[in-house]
Amino acid sequence: MVKVKGRRAEVEILRFWRKAGLSSRLARKTPGGVRYTVCEIPIPVHGLTQKTLRAKLVRDVYLRYRAMTGFNVLYLPCLNGFDPSLEESLKPSEGSDRLSLRKECRRRAEGLADEVSAALEWLGILGDWGKRQLNFDSKYTLNAAESIWLLFRKGGLKRKARPFYWCFRCCRGSEPERVGRKEIESWSAYLKLPVLKGLERLGVRVYLLTFSDHIRSLPTAVGVVFNPASKPVAALKGDEVYVLSS
Predict the structure, then answer these.
(1) Residues 162 and 196 in one domain
(2) Average pLDDT for residues 75-85, to the nearest whole number?
(3) What is the CATH classification number for the domain harbouring 39?
(4) Which end of the chain is more exposed for a tag (fewer CB within 10 A), N or C?
(5) Among candidates 228, 150, 156, 145, which has minimal Cα distance to 189?
(6) Contacting residues for 205 by C-beta, under 8 A, at least 6 apart
(7) In this structure, are 170 and 124 located in the same domain?
(8) Are 1 and 88 within one domain?
(9) Higher per-residue confidence, 31 vs 124
(10) Which domain holds residue 101?
(11) 46-73 pLDDT, tens digit each
(12) Are strands 172-173 and 72-75 parallel, antiparallel or unpaired?
């Protein structure tokens, strides 16, 4: 066996991992074990920060621990290509063709997704990188739309107007600190999410109530976060129990 050093050695190791199918073999190593599927907020393709890298490395250690304790770990990476800075970097002129601009943004996002995937795989983070998902793919957005419609049809979404910053000239949302004009109202939603287990003592039908002004990201949400400064409370309405943050 020929010894290689430095960057070339890293490339050889990655090639060996891909050829061996390390991620899929890890997921199948305990055929009788409980399947452990990882869902996460999509990784941003632009501006991969040290904070994000540290979070991925720590989570990777935890997933390896899960795999060693009998779980079948399945991690399918997902990347977020919706980034206003991509459009800003193109410096579009007023009246420019929006379709061409979107296509160029998509092309750049796909290139950045390749770079981010390669960087995380190079760090040794186990995942099925060959089957990664991009949240601007047609199949992904269709699944998101179907999931939102299903929540709405079952009464899990409530419409409500809340302040949201939107630029009518560039047709995208803006950060509050970058806005010098008035607030614009936009549709947001209150979610009524069913609790499947763990709160049976409160009643037969228990729901978590939360608010979202970014409905598109709902299908990729990891969980509901309560403010640590507040306390969750339960309220009875008819034959349903609602759990919300006080």
Answers:
(1) yes
(2) 79
(3) 3.40.50.620
(4) N
(5) 156
(6) 194, 239, 240, 241
(7) no
(8) yes
(9) 124
(10) 1-136
(11) 767 888 888 888 888 888 888 888 787 7
(12) unpaired
**Which of 74, 106, 136 is the C-terminal boundary of a domain?**
136
Residue 2 has pLDDT above 50, yes or no: no
What's the pLDDT band for 12 if we cut at 50, 70, 90?
Answer: confident
Query: Taking the alpha carbons of 108, 114, 116, 119 in that order, is the dihedral positive or negative?
Result: negative
Q: Residue 146: CB partners within 8 Å, gap ≥ 6?
A: none
Q: Are 188 and 160 in contact (CB under 8 A)?
A: yes
Is residue 29 situated within a structural domain? yes
Does 131 lie in the same domain as 154? Answer: no
Are 20 and 200 in contact by the 8 Å Cβ rule? The answer is no
Which of 85, 109, 136 represents a domain boundary (last residue)?
136
Q: Domain total for the chain? A: 2
Tell me the backbone φ, ψ of residue 156, rounded to 5 degrees: -85, -5
3-state DSSP helix/strand/coil % of the chain, to nearest 5? 40, 25, 35
Residue 1 has pLDDT above 50, yes or no: no
Q: Do the Cβ atoms of 219 and 41 come closer than 8 Å?
A: no
129 within a domain of the structure (yes/no): yes
d(CA 242, CA 236): 6
The 3-state DSSP class for residue 151 equals helix
Model pLDDT, residue 201: 72
Identify the residue whose tokens are 């009643």: 203
Query: CB of 242 within 8 A of CB of 207?
Result: yes
Do 120 and 182 lie in one domain? The reply is: no
